[in-house]
Amino acid sequence: MQTSNAAGTEKSFHPLGIAILTVSDTRQPETDKSGDKIAELAQAAGHRIAARRILPDAVPGLRAQLQDWIADPAIDVIIATGGTGVTGRDVTPEALAPLVSKSIPGFGELFRMLSYQEIGTSTIQSRAEAALCDGTLVFLLPGSTGGVRLGMESIIVPQLDNRHRPCNLNELLPRIRNER
């Protein structure tokens, strides 16, 4: 990863406030390994955890929580884990859909390409996605720790680092928010 700007000078790191949403009918704080992995990797990268919740797979509750966090100025990024599969209980993308200002299709495309290298054609069952919602970045990851690790290490952590080159989402956030 390149971390210097065009003039060759090192930029200082700009931490973001991250909210973690675990979507599960069965997980508890002590069994939320995927949420723990997100927190671990985000904090290791220098970001702060601004909020964290576990909610069941139900559109109204998920959408309400997402709306609250999108409106919270302390939260720059929401990372959700779980509810992105293809069963009837997997409703995280449906909860997010009406809140999306602009989708980021490259995230899901890249996630599935990288996932294919690990799990083969089973990756077609993933509806991982990313979007902008009124100036807040939202990432939807699978509930598996492997999927979380892959998405965080390969895509999200680098894109949330304002020093990442040639470009990153962290650096775009102020411009995105001024367009509201």
TrEMBL record:
Native source species: Acidithiobacillus sulfuriphilus
Pathway(s) served: Cofactor biosynthesis; molybdopterin biosynthesis
Any one GO cellular component localisation term in the record: cytosol
GO biological process, one term: Mo-molybdopterin cofactor biosynthetic process
Protein's name according to its UniProt entry: Molybdenum cofactor biosynthesis protein B
Record-annotated MoaB/Mog domain positions: 19-163
InterPro entries named in the record: MoaB, MoaB/Mog-like_dom_sf, MoaB/Mog_dom, MoaB_proteobac
Gene3D superfamilies in the record: MoaB/Mog-like domain (3.40.980.10)
Family membership: Belongs to the MoaB/Mog family.
Classification of source organism: Bacteria, Pseudomonadati, Pseudomonadota, Acidithiobacillia, Acidithiobacillales
Keyword annotations of the record: Molybdenum cofactor biosynthesis
Described function: May be involved in the biosynthesis of molybdopterin.
Classification via NCBIfam families: moaB_proteo (TIGR02667), molyb_syn (TIGR00177)
Pfam family, one: MoCF_biosynth
UniProt entry tagged with the keyword Lyase: no
